[in-house]
Fold each of these.
Amino acid sequence: MRVHLIGVSGAGMAPLAGLLHDAGHEVEGSDASFDPPMGPLLPTWGVKTREGLGDPELVVVGNVCRKDHPLVLEAEARGIRRISMPTALRELVTRERPVVAVCGTHGKTTTTALLAHLLDGAGLEPGWLIGGVPLVPSGARPFALGRAQRSLSAPTPLAPFVVEGDEYDSAFFEKVPKVWGYAPRVAILTSIEHDHVDIYPDEESYFAAFRGMIERLPDGGLLVANAADPLVVRVVGEARTAARVVWYAASDVAGRPFPSGQAHLDEPVVWTANEVGLRGDGDVLQPFDLFVGPSSAGRFGVGVFGAHNVANALAAIAVTSEAFGLPVRETATRASGFRGVKRRLEQHLDGRAGRGVVLYDDFAHHPTAVDATLRAVRARHHRARIVAVYEPRSATACRAMHQAGYTTAFGPADVVVLPPLGRSTIPADERLDLDRLERDLVAQGKQVVRAASVGEVPAAVGEVAAEGSVVVVMSNGAFGGVVASLTGALR
């Protein structure tokens, strides 16, 4: 089938395009731009890019498109069927395969990639779709078709398909969370914290997206949920589900449950893990102690550091055992081969060249994620001068709803570099006050550097990043190529 994807460079749409090509379809796509990380990879996956619509038999419409998009209107006028990304995945790829969705406000991408890594290493031949590019040696593609059919020589069950279960809406004509359309049989729920205020104006509307996901799990399905998140506990308790619920909870090196304190539960927490402190800057693995019920399974390591990544690893390991019956110790050992995902604490400089600066790139934009990222960096670089470079860009990040949250989120940093807000259309009374944030951070003893524009960020960082500094760039967008500029300049 000839398939055209509108908005093909998106974090989810680009891997879908690669999947459809691998499934035997003739795939092309269009977009306003073809920015990294996904845009340049499309041709390597066999996906053609073009400006016009061409001659497709089916059009997949990304959720960035409005109903008046020229190509949407053209497809409608020509009578070409238009479907959303979740419908395309369900109809053309997963079909009857057991879908495992990784859901939650934080940690979806890393946990999805790690779960795919563990299932693939166990020989289950899973498929997957991840909204980020896994780093080698875990794998270089954010998608895989996996074994899509049963074996002809033996009654082999269908291989699972792991998908990042985004709660954002599906398309302008399908205003429901994408994860609903994936129809998962198994789900992980990592965390819940009000986000995406552009489509969820209040907490209750946001919580309803996750309740709806839980209530759609089938009889005999499985939900692995984070007992350390009070809102996860609340929403799971409010949902009516036929699925089995299994709880997990990870603690940081000080014994505090991640992310925000142990919630009250009537049921036991079956899967727990304790972060073990890193020994120094050169540690490759984040160690953790794993427990199943009251029994210790042993000490293991995962190739991404921080308490939040211990929680992510714990959730993935729990699913491999609870849903697929894989041996715990053998599976947990495979986590050491996982190296994370691009733009999730991705290291670009290790301090051994040029000015001796360590440079990380991270997707964090919500205060909770900023805090988790900086705490992880501080745990690895105990005595370093940490320079946090943050772009408030998303619809949520640019709003005053998290003014207080940002005041504490930069706690582990020594220096904070702030460009202007990434959105100029937010009403003044709803806007994040950067002047106030600067005053609050200075009152905590931090140095704050204000860049007049994104283009001036590299120069601003250059003035404060002395030898031995650790620079952490955080944005949920391209950030004007700041990371590439800093990588070259600091070398």
Amino acid sequence: MKKAFEIRVVLASPIYERNIGATSRAMANMGFDQLILVDPQCEITFEAQQAAATGQTALQSRKTYANWKSFYDHEPDSIRLGFTTKDGRARQVRDFKPTLDWLANESPYFTKKNENPVIVHLIFGREDWGLSTEDIEYVHYACSLPTYGSNPSLNLAQAVLIALFMVRESWGGTLGKIENQIADKRLNRRPTAFLEESLQVWLQEMGFTLYGKKVNVYTVLKRMLLQNTPTPKEIRILETVLQQSIRKLREWKELKKQKN
């Protein structure tokens, strides 16, 4: 994902101010701050500020439009993705993750030569019935978020958080750090190519069949070693041990052959 993008979260007719505040907090978690309300059904008071907690930026700098006409008159041209759990002839729902991948890799929105950031409006419906037919009329793609239980309906702020997390996972961003966080140096290392050939030769010299029907010795050993994320130095030491073992085994086999 090389091209810059700008995410704007749109809440259509939200009815609970605490969800607006919690949405602002979710946006702060994921590094976004452009919040838009279309025809909100509640006032913004201290309750919204409480729900936003340490993520006040989007809430305080929010834009509000009285209706969709005003929204489209003032907002720039963009990719508009609406979230819904309803399916039907009027709204062909797509999974969100494949949609993100397609947009980034194949769609003209990202592939065309234009230095400006791609603006993406993520549109979420009101808490009780979601996006109406009018809300979704000008959406480019109706999308669904993944759930694993029998209830596909998500809390508004939780839906925003999941969607923004998936955007970051697919399109990138700078990962935040907790203050005084102790980093695991092994997790931050660049992946080092594991010397698979030496392990294979060593096992064969030891008399093992690499890909046995019952037990795949090579795969099991490699997985056990790589799960510990060896350092480059540890890889070099292991390579030295394997190569020396291979030489010793071959010398022993040659001596045995000569004696026979």
